[in-house]
Amino acid sequence: MKQAAYIVNTGIITAIGNDTAACLDALLHSRTGVGKAEYLKTHWSEELPVAEVKASNEALAAIAGVDTKWPRTAILSAIAVKEAMQPVADKLHGLKLGFFSATTVGGMDLTENVYKEFKEDSSKVDFDNIKNHECGAITELVANHFGINDFVTTISTACSSSANSIMMAAQMIGNGMLDVAIAGGADSLSRFTLNGFNTLMILDKQPCQPFDNNRRGLNLGEGAGYLLLMSEKAMQQCGTTADCKVSGYANANDAYHQTASSPDGTGNKLAMGNALKVANLQPADINYINLHGTGTANNDSSEGKAIEVLFDGKVPAASSTKAYTGHTLGAAAGVEAVFSVLSIRHGVVYPNLRWETQMEDVSFKPATELQQGVAINHVLSNSFGFGGNCSSLVFSKC
Amino acid sequence: MLSMELYITGTGIVSGAGNSGDESFLKEAPSYNTVKLLCIEPDYKAYIPPMQLRRMSKAVRIGIGASKMCMESAGIEKPDAISVGTAMGCLADTEVFLGKMIAQDEQMLTPTAFIQSTHNTVSGQIALLAGCYGHNLTYVQRGHSFEHAVINTQLYLADNPHQQMLVGGIDELTDGSFEALKIAGINRKENSTPADVLNGNTHGAIAGEGAAFFIMTDAKPAIPAVFIKDVYAFTEKDTATAAEKLTAYINNQSLSIDAVMLGKSGDEKSNAFYQLLRSGVFANTSQYAFKHLCGEYATASAFALGILTNAIAKGEALPSHCALNNEASSLKNLLLVNHYMHYYSCFVLQIV
């Protein structure tokens, strides 16, 4: 029998807030983080809105207490990890502690500023801008800063990355390989990703409208989100308790196209269905679905159809929170795991912002009004991405 | 690691020393005088449809090629799940898109290179070509990327016993990464010969790249096969402390080791570490090396594991040109010890 991975605390930073309390407040008051880029220097700042964390690297590094020369992804990661670890930071002696992070951009925000000069004459470039380019280097910076070294890893499976880091952390705690884990992910905005998504013609020039019939695409965002996971033994040592746990997880592949989802959401269905199986739950047990809901024509249609089939038409309250935070890519599942925990803890369903028109090919309507005082026992959180990677997590009250 | 025997029933390698689908693979000692060992790529006709091949970057080609050779050697058409380690991902496509984005001031860009630049492109393309809907993960933890893909394999098989997982390590070298790795002191600026790699004491090591894939399962096969008994992976900045940690770990295994495969690269910092082990815990053990074949790169441990499993599966001895001292008379218990920067790992292997 596997041990449960209890969720003891959360850490988050996104365009709607620098910590868990601020993000929850924005969700409860329908405040979006989508707007004009101020800190990302790009040709597209007037045309493509983004969900940016409104602070310079220097200001963010001061919050985290780290070097201002770190890549922005590492700084965002450190801020969220610091918040997640804070209640137990001095109580972990003798416990095996792991750090499971996820990122897709790594140190690209610095690399892209010096790449041209580096290719022309590498000696003219300050190597500090290149040396942390690797995704794993971001995780290593943060792990070293917090003194985590029992197990440190990084997963990069595009938009599903941090769902997989949470899955692996839950498995390693479940098998008794670790006592404590910080699991989630981080990604900063970069010109590389903004332009990449722009070439795919899936960026919305207005604030996005997930699960709306007239949706036009996604807005990119940035941030970091982590869960502090513990075994029962670790909670006892730290004198802490938890109100929910990671109860299910699954990873599947759509095996359809490098960047597009299959029309009927084959991988989506497999991920959701298998996550429910691991949690030993039926679809009817789920009280809230935090949708992947990027706002692209393709994703929302495939995801919606897969949900309709899996839930046999009886779809629980569902909403996408990407209209608030943008699509934070490698951080998305970490960010949305935090929102799922808050949904259970506070009994809330977040409204799917800016929804206006029912989708023609999907019959269920996302939650559009804030619901409070609801009993939320089980939340399903979806994250689907490039490379056919589809992951779903189930969080349950305990 | 969990207590689980991970049997390796298939191997596929594309490397600077050729590919495992070739009859003459590793039969001859290599001969070169160069700064980098780039992959000698196979004829992909048997593995990849030509239309698709044209669009693939080298990372994807060598990854698909090695994974197809691996599945062929295991006698399977598709795996149940896929677990890949790559420190740098699809660098060439990343650099193509980055270069154009800067040169064209973010305008008139096309998506192909961006689409193929994501770190999970190789694992995604393998799934797509094989029609594999199973679990699919990509690890990007520098010198432990492959090791973590193996640990994930155990976690997956613990939940889904008797399945067959495709597990690989892959990294490609680009002009950009070679330049950065020279500045970082990992790769050597001057030319190297095989003798420099095996016996030299240089600043940095010859650069390399490659793809090595395996079919791994928890179900004991009927034919002779290598199984992974344990993987010990840790990071350590001090070489003497790293050697102490490994020595303690190996002594704790209380195994009679027939041979050890070492990631000796000729790099001076690295030599200090390997010398402590060679004259210490391995003083009476047959020692082999492999980086004269594949060069130094973050997932080279996958290549080394591949040499071992490939030889065992074919009933061959380990290549003589890999031997650093007396060759092993029998192979039962094997170790693979490697490090990349401050990332160390030790695979404990047995043959059944």
Task: Describe this structure as you would to a colleague.
The complex is a heterodimer of chains A (398) and B (352). Chain A has 398 residues and is of the alpha/beta class. In chain A, 33% of the residues lie in helices and 18% in strands. Chain A folds into 2 domains: 5-238, Peroxisomal Thiolase, Chain A, domain 1 (3-Layer(aba) Sandwich); 245-397, Peroxisomal Thiolase, Chain A, domain 1 (3-Layer(aba) Sandwich), CATH 3.40.47.10. In chain A, β9, α10 and β10 (317-319) form a beta-alpha-beta unit. In chain A, α2 runs parallel beside α3 (72-85), α3 (72-85) runs parallel beside α5 (135-146) and α6 (161-174) packs across α12. The radius of gyration of chain A is 20 Å and the shape is globular. Chain B has 2 domains: 6-217, Thiolase/Chalcone synthase (Peroxisomal Thiolase, Chain A, domain 1); 226-351, Peroxisomal Thiolase, Chain A, domain 1. In chain B, 35% of the residues lie in helices and 21% in strands. Chain B has 12 helices and 13 strands. In chain B, strands 1, 2, 4, 5, 6, 8, 9, 10, 11, 12 and 13 form an 11-stranded mixed β-sheet that branches. In chain B, strands 3-7 form a two-stranded parallel sheet. The mean pLDDT of chain B is 96. The interface between A and B is large, with 61 and 61 residues.
